[in-house]
Amino acid sequence: MHGGDIYRNDIKYDFSVNINPLGCPEKLKEAMIKAVERVEEYPDIRYERLKNAIAGKYSTDVENVLVGNGASELFMAVLEAVRPGKVLLTAPSFSGYEYAANAVGAEVKRYFLKDKLNFRLDEDFSESITDDVDCVILAIPNNPTGDIADTGLIEKIADTGKLLILDECFISLTEKSENSFIFRLRNYNNVIVVRSFTKSFAIPGVRLGYAVCGDEVLARRIGGCLPEWNLSVLAEEAGLEALADEGFLKDSRKIIAAEREFLSFELSELGFRVIPSEADYILFYEKSNTGLKDKLIEKKILIRDCSDYYGLENGWYRIAVKKHEDNIELIKRLKEIRYGT
Question: Whole-angstrom Cα distance, residue 231 to residue 56?
């Protein structure tokens, strides 16, 4: 189950999906509108302009860059290319990794993050990377917890030589965006970083992601598992415009940090247990488990029920960080539910 199920609910405020609260930039919309004039053309099957722009941004070789119809397509392509026997995942974490692992018949091994550590990735995780593990997948920051693992620990995991897939789809909306492992890939031919424009530029309906590999040969293998023409001309133009707009992300990070602090404080004041987050979403727990999601749906607000995550139980919820006026509305409705006013 994912967030964003607005099609089966009457929703005014969707806090269940974690996309940039500032929405899609006007320049990016304009680039896609202009690209409509080219819909009678096939896209460039090599996507050279977009791949060159990504390679230039991260000072990597263009041969190591892949583009996909969202990050989900890239996860599927990576696992199809390497066909791992066993994949190590953390719990709780994004369900899409297991979906991709199941698609290629891989066995899933889970490392349960510790509640007492607020679900932070700890040094004990390395002990789970046994000889029979072929691939490790980590979300940086993790979803739904918002934790960003220490760079030193990620390097230690990469040093095992196991294939390491790092999902950095949310990192550009955090204050640690410059810590991206992309800048370390030249030292690790066993690491792949997957990122997405979806969350950062609020374009989930466009479907656009990319991956950067530490090894050119591996990149070619993965590319062979991707469909031809897997991006539209609209998606490619959106990506090119997004890569050039660092100012938008800088403004976004500032607003998200302030609103995350506001929401975390207000949730704590209401008696919820709030997990410290560095992302544009917050995980919290309602001990009384009074059906909070359904009560908020009645008020036209949708949040993510996280009880279906491995490692969590009934009472855990995730909310996106949104604009201040939207966040105020959520807190107002939570107070109504909590205090019956």
Answer: 20
